[in-house]
Amino acid sequence: MTTVSLNNLVKSYGDTQVLHGINLDIQSGEFVVLVGPSGCGKSTTLRMIAGLEEISAGDIRIGGDVVNDMEPKERNIAMVFQNYAIYPHMTVRKNIGFGLRTSKLSKDEKDARINEVSGILELTDLLDRKPNQLSGGQRQRVAIGRAMVRDPAAFLFDEPLSNLDAQLRTQMRLEIKKLHQRVGNTIIFVTHDQVEAMTMADRIVIMKDGHIQQVGTPFEVFYEPANIFVAQFIGAPSMNMLNGIVKGETIALDNGTSVQVPTTKLSENQQVAVGLRPDALLVQEGEGLFSGEVSVIEPLGTDTLAYVKVGEKEVIAKASGRTPPAVGDTVNLHAAPEAIHLFDAHTGEAIR
Amino acid sequence: MGIYKRLSISQKQIVWAWGLLAIPIVFYVVVRFYPTANAILLSFQEWNLLGSRNWTGFDNYVKLFSDPTFWKVFGNTFLYLILGTPSSLLLAFVIAFHLDKLRFMHGTIRALYFLPFMTSAVAMAWVWRWFYQPVPIGVFNNTLATFGIPQIPFLNSTTFALPSILAPAIWAGLGFQVIIFMAGLRAIPQTYYEAARIDGISAWETLTEITIPLLKPTIVFLVVFSSIGFLRIFDQVFNMTTNDPGGPLNSTKPLVLMIYDTAFNSFDMGYAAAQTVVLFTVLLVVSLLQLRVMRDK
């Protein structure tokens, strides 16, 4: 099994630097998801690991060996592309077998590998079809099959679910996760969808503008975001963010209200951002953190999202799905003290 | 307008489509289909362009198939096709394949290849004819002389004349074929090549297993298109051998030139029409064969 480590990885196109020194250690058998908005450098990082992009500075180790100057095929990795990259003029069998072209296995061993992989991916009945006779999900499985058949040290996935519809994406997400539990190879998976990242990853790497923002388990990045960007990127709907100034024991918020928080790590007059996930800001009876008028409601079934005007600012809160508030109601919003996140307003870093 | 108003939207669209198509259809019937039918009719007749048309049955065809000149010309026409199509396609593909990877001066080089396609075939034929002249006029023979290599009688030899005439014809069509090949190459997603690189597929296998199969529609189009072009070759031959059109000793004469000769030098319109029908049949058969052979199974 194989570890992958990135050491001060830099990528520049001419004078423009797009990756500014990435450091990341991926354990053997780990499922790591690189996530971030478009242009954050996640795909570039993956393509550098694959050997499709030159490395401008720093190094990449796969299984302990520096692979900077190795051809993609020498790195013993396999990649699954967003558009599948399965060849339209070849049958499924030939597409899957294409990955074994250069291998030294005998014909029988190759056939055995192809049959084994197509069995795992439930492609056995489709082996003699051409890609244009397959559904999107089946094509995706063929692409995964071509990667698996070589038994690579690591799988690289470049937004493989983006071309699928919502329902199929949910299903393939689960299939890939099951596959990982079964075969146990190292997987590096790139996506822009935070739900995919949360649901599949052992560890999530959140990137923005060519920098890593936070590396952590789904639990860590959700409950202990390192900064405002991570806090707002992970979780939907996005975390409410209110600016304020520390005044004595309380924080005076710019919407005219104030919250009481433990201020041991804060200094008087420090400018902070107070973050509250909509999930943790509940519409309930009785005196709460804030109160305000409901401007819009979004029923989701189990819950209802209420857009509540608190002072000047609108916040999103969660209300009951069965007895939702009506537009125009004045409601009280409650939050547990541990659900309040504090960030430095200038640096954006979390204050813990 | 009462009837028109009562039609549904799709019926109105059909009325308009037929209305607009009627003009080209009438045009084609008058200038293409009628003369074609007339030529087929004429091939069974005798006519000197002025007198009356007399039925002769299959006489023109019998005469044609027993004419050794016809078989020589028929062979020449196929030689143009068999030499011209593969070599021009191979050349165009090699150029397009490498030009596609080139960024520096890409546009300029592409324009240089395309330029001959826009040039008049007559002017080009005369320039090439001048290239082929003996020392001290011709560029090629002058170059050979510089290196002490014996002269080649390009246009005066029964062996060299046909390839010498073919060369400018290939060169003229190259620009077009390069552009079409490049468009085909651009349409192949880059990820196919990236996937092949990751799988460690060699450059040669990538070419034969991925690029060429995916270029098949482009190749089919160009094969059919350029075959028709070579089977109908005329301008280059006529202009490069004006002293003895199709010479020396009919060694470069294609079918179109023979038709021209029969019709406008011998004024034997019926015989010329029979030759035209043969050419038409050959073109049809060759194109259909190519489409059938290269069609997806």
Description:
The complex is a heterodimer of chains A (352) and B (297). By secondary structure, chain A is α+β, with helices and mostly antiparallel strands. Chain A has two domains: 4-233, 3-Layer(aba) Sandwich (Rossmann fold); 240-351, Nucleic acid-binding proteins (OB fold (Dihydrolipoamide Acetyltransferase, E2P), Beta Barrel), CATH 2.40.50.140. Chain A contains eight helices and 21 strands. In chain A, the strands form four sheets. Chain A has a six-stranded mixed beta sheet, with helices on both faces. Chain A is elongated, with a radius of gyration of 24 Å. Helix content of chain B is 72%, strand content 1%. Chain B has 297 residues and is mainly alpha-helical. In chain B, helix 6 packs across helix 8 (161-186). Chain B is flat. In chain B, a hairpin with a 7-residue loop joins strand 1 (45-46) and strand 2. Chain B has two domains: 2-42; 66-294, MetI-like fold (Orthogonal Bundle), CATH 1.10.3720.10. Chain A binds chain B through residues 50-52, 71-74, 77-79, 81-83, 85, 87-89, 98-99, 101-102, 146, 150, and chain B through 189, 191-192, 194-202, 205, 209-210, 213-214, 216.
Main sheet attributes: strand count, strand direction, barrel closure of chain B: 2 strands, antiparallel
Q: Which class of secondary structure composition applies to the elements of chain A?
A: alpha+beta
Element order of chain B: H for helix, E for strand: HHEEHHHHHHHHHHHH
| Count of discrete alpha- or pi-helical segments spanning 4 or more residues of chain B | 14
Order of helices and strands of chain A: EEEHEEEHHHEHEHEEHHEEEEEEEEEEE
What number of structural domains do the residues of chain B give? 2
Q: Which range best describes the helical content of chain B: under 10%, 10-25%, 25-40%, 40-55%, 55-70% or over 70%?
A: over 70%
Number-wise, the strands of chain A total 21
Distance between the termini of chain B: 51 Å
**What name is given to the CATH topology of the largest domain in chain B?**
MetI-like fold
Multimeric status of the protein = heterodimer
- Give helix % range of chain A: 10-25%
**Main β sheet profile of chain A:** 6 strands, mixed
> What fraction of the residues of chain A are assigned to beta strands by DSSP?
25-35%
Strand order of the largest sheet of chain A: 6-7-8-3-9-10
Assigned CATH class of the largest domain in chain A = Alpha Beta
Distance between the termini of chain A: 37 Å
What form of chain B results from the Cα inertia axes? flat
Domain ABC transporter (chain A): 4-234
GO molecular function (chain A): ATP binding
Protein name (chain A): Carbohydrate ABC transporter ATP-binding protein, CUT1 family (TC 3.A.1.1.-)
Organism (chain A): Pseudovibrio ascidiaceicola
